[in-house]
Design goal:
homodimer; alpha/beta; Dihydrofolate Reductase, subunit A; two-stranded antiparallel sheet; 7 helices; 29% strand; globular
């Protein structure tokens, strides 16, 4: 059966975003530096339509695999709102994205194969729709932190990857916050590093 | 010049110890599980004089290197107090240990080469004494978290290793807590994993 996973960047002190998050500063103070490694990869730059070619590297291959395994996405409303103004006309997903929201809205079809569907019936319904839409490929829980924690607590996550940037944020939005120990038991399955990040892949134990 | 380093176990959510720490429960609730990987290694079991041989593995070699590079230790008072009742007659350090304290005390000579020296003149003095005593080998800042943070903020750390156990603590004593981003910039230099932990080694950038 297809897997449900998340794949996020965090700081050494566990933050996904810095302080002072707002629409004009969605990753918070210092948050862009968390993702410096991914912005250098050829695959990610192509996906976002960024000028200047990126690097072909192990990290490039890693990012490519993450996007290629995902047949659909589940995303929180706040992450969508932040992305709506920032993503290019052809967003990087190129697959159906199911957005958790309380406000009904017609599907929003974008260039390149990305359609945002707005789900008001809860995260379990969004995940069911994403599983169906993924047609046998995996479902990525994009974020934000709240949505990921909700999926962890519900026991829906099969595996996950943390890309740990070698920096401190000090304050901001923590990924693993206020989760009880029983919410997650895992087993490391891979660990690699570059100058800009360590990449830790875990399988969730049931 | 010899290096100053720390080498600690943390949970996925960044805790060095769990909730409810007290002398009878020094690692806090669930804290022993953080260190399960090290208690399986042959070297560590021998150093602590534990019954039943441990495993010869990459992790065994890693622990051996950490102990062999350390020519002296700096340690906080609380960690010493907790260890004083728990360590065997021949503590695992087998080198001089400089304990930060406000209470003068004569050096405490233990079997196997470990002598605890009590330093009341502050962490910089303890570090200077440790550097001298290490005779060209490295100085390990053992802990606890407060002492490590103090050494990070002072800019004394050259490299560090995090052994990340694939579990959540939920609450307890965080390693990287309330540190401003400028306190630490680093570069990953190694990453490996077993079923029980990922081992991340960083070099501090000045």
């Amino acid at each position: 059966m297809a897997s449900v996973f998340f794949d996020v960047g965090v700081s050494l002190d566990g933050f996904m975003a810095g302080a002072n998050r707002r629409p004009a500063n969605p990753l918070g103070d210092g948050g862009v530096a968390l993702h410096e490694w991914v912005f250098r990869t050829a695959f990610f730059r192509e996906r976002l339509g960024l000028p200047e070619a990126g690097e072909r590297s192990d990290e490039d291959a890693l990012v490519r695999r993450v996007f290629e395994r995902a047949g659909a996405y589940v995303m929180g409303r706040r992450m969508f709102d932040e992305g709506e103004v920032g993503w290019p006309e052809a967003p990087p997903f190129r697959a159906p994205v199911f957005v958790l929201t309380h406000t009904p809205r017609e599907p929003w079809v974008r260039k390149g194969g990305t359609t945002f569907h707005f789900v008001t019936e809860g995260a379990d319904r969004a995940l069911a729709l994403a599983r169906e839409a993924a047609q046998g490929r995996d479902v990525r829980v994009s974020g934000g932190a709240d949505t990921i924690r909700q999926c962890i607590e519900a026991g829906w996550i099969d595996d996950f990857t943390l890309h740990v940037a070698p920096m401190l944020m000090g304050e901001g939005l923590r990924l693993f916050d206020a989760l009880v120990p029983a919410a997650l038991r895992a087993e490391p399955v891979a660990a690699s590093h570059s100058r800009l990040a360590t990449h830790l892949h875990y399988r969730v134990l049931r």
